[in-house]
From TrEMBL:
Subcellular location per the Swiss-Prot or TrEMBL entry: Membrane
Keyword field: Amino-acid transport, Membrane, Transmembrane, Transmembrane helix, Transport
Highest taxon of source: Eukaryota
Pfam annotation, one family: Aa_trans
Record-annotated membrane-spanning stretches: 57-79, 100-124, 156-173, 185-206, 226-247, 259-283, 315-334, 354-372, 378-401, 413-434
Protein name per Swiss-Prot or TrEMBL: Amino acid transporter transmembrane domain-containing protein
GO CC annotations on file: organelle membrane
GO MF, one example: L-amino acid transmembrane transporter activity
Domain Amino acid transporter transmembrane intervals: 27-430
Membrane topology note: Multi-pass membrane protein
InterPro entries hit by this protein: AA_transpt_TM
């Protein structure tokens, strides 16, 4: 970031120093693809079918593809300016264009977004394993279905065991590329969900129990403003920008990041549309905002109950494996915010600092998820606003600022359009959601 006294640009050190990058520890393109795809295929996949109900099949596919294309453009902006500048972190890149204030804004947005997402992940895991209560209706979790209601099937105990024996060993890994295998498993679990959902849809279609999917929006049931509420869901899903720099820093050739991003976007578009289409085909207009609730309904057959349990378990494990990727960038940005002006070694080389920060963040997310299990709406609002900044507004702003003199006229026009659409769409979506909440 810029030093106000000497006006010298300091390079913000990555989590691992450059010397280690030249060892035989280069990240691979496949590992980058797995980690990027896992970031995008997170908790939001369960909300995709509900957007198809609002938008219709064809507009839903169009919106998914458009958001993916815009995401590719913004990441290309970020990679180009990172290559032209001296900083190798997101906050440092924005700091080169907008000084300490810009760098601070990025760090705050990353911390709010990722911390909120991690807490929501644990809340969802608690709901799947231990159940919840909404609108006076009690939903039993998998553990309570299997073993009954006991202290060891409670949310606090189940999440503690999950955090200690599954999540903790993964968040203690110091290289993001080390998560490529768990990320691959996470994507495989998402594919398992697609296969199960599509199989159930075809079976229901064969038995004549499906509804005709809505091709276009039905304006007798939704308004034009309702259409805008679906866009933040896709923006949140494709918002992997906070992990662009950590993953790029570990690739043997930083230029490989472009290929990894585009392959990941194609994978995510296919999975998003498949889940949205088959989920909507299976449940029709009864689809809930969180499709997992539809699978939570009890079935009268052993096969149906078995499939419901498989869906919920695979989704729970999927989220547990996404958790370390989001935790990685959160930890790096908090460390950069707290220790950036102090003469300390990189985080990965300072074991006491690394361990204490990792344990503190995991403990914080666990305590909040157990104490405030209804915090979803609050963090969904924060996450939607900050993710828009991280995904579109900040990358477009550095193009307009053009500190390195590499932006073309076309780039600047695209950046202006991107900012206007991002701000306008988010404002309409936020207003519509607030109005609906007040009305109900």
């Amino acid at each position: 970031m810029l030093d106000s006294e000497s006006n010298i640009t300091h390079v913000v050190a990555p989590l691992l120093p450059r010397e280690e990058d030249h060892c035989s520890q280069h990240g691979s393109i496949s590992g980058a693809v797995f980690n990027i795809s896992t970031t995008m295929i997170g908790a939001g996949i369960m909300s995709i079918p509900a957007t198809m109900k609002v938008l219709g099949i064809i507009p839903g596919l169009v919106v998914i593809v458009l958001v993916a294309l815009v995401t590719d453009i913004t990441v290309e902006f970020m990679l180009r300016y990172t290559s032209s500048g001296k900083s190798i972190t997101y906050a440092g890149m924005v700091g080169e264009s907008f000084g300490p204030f810009g760098s601070l804004a990025v760090k705050i947005c990353v911390i709010i977004t990722n911390l909120g997402v991690l807490i929501v992940y644990l809340i969802i895991l608690g709901d799947v394993l231990c159940g919840n209560e909404s609108n006076g209706i009690t939903h039993l979790g998998i553990l309570q279905d299997w073993f009954g209601i006991h202290w060891w099937t409670s949310r606090a105990f189940a999440l503690l065991i999950l955090a200690l024996f599954i999540i903790l060993p993964l968040v203690m890994l110091k290289r993001v590329d080390s998560l490529r295998y768990t990320s691959a498993i996470s994507i495989l679990l998402a594919l398992v969900f697609v296969v199960i959902c599509s199989s159930m849809s075809f079976y229901a279609l064969w038995r004549g129990k499906t509804q005709s999917p809505r091709i276009l929006p039905d304006f007798s049931q939704v308004t034009v403003l309702d259409l805008f509420t679906t866009v933040p869901i896709f923006v949140t899903g494709f918002g992997f920008h906070v992990n662009v720099h950590p993953i790029r820093a570990e690739l043997g050739k930083p230029g490989d990041m472009n290929w990894a991003v585009r392959i990941s976007l194609i994978i995510s578009v296919v999975i998003y549309f498949a889940i949205g289409f088959f989920g909507y085909l299976l449940f029709g207009d009864s689809i809930m905002a969180d499709m997992l609730v539809n699978f939570d309904h009890s079935s009268n057959t052993p096969a149906g109950r078995f499939l419901n349990d498989i869906v919920r378990l695979s989704y729970a494990l999927h989220l547990a494996l996404v958790f370390p990727i989001m935790s990685y960038s959160l930890r790096a940005n908090i460390d950069e915010l707290v220790f950036s002006n102090k003469n300390r070694p990189p985080l990965a080389l300072d074991t006491p600092r690394f361990v204490s920060l990792t344990l503190s963040l995991l403990a914080l997310t666990y305590l909040v998820a157990v104490a405030i299990p209804n915090i979803w709406d609050f963090y969904q609002f924060l996450g939607s606003t900050t993710i828009v900044c991280l995904s579109f507004i900040f990358p477009a702003s550095i193009i307009l600022r053009d500190m390195h003199g590499i932006s073309t006229t076309k780039d600047k026009v695209v950046a202006i359009v991107m900012i206007v659409l991002a701000v306008g769409t988010s404002a309409i979506a936020i207003w519509t959601n607030l109005y609906s909440s007040i009305a109900h």
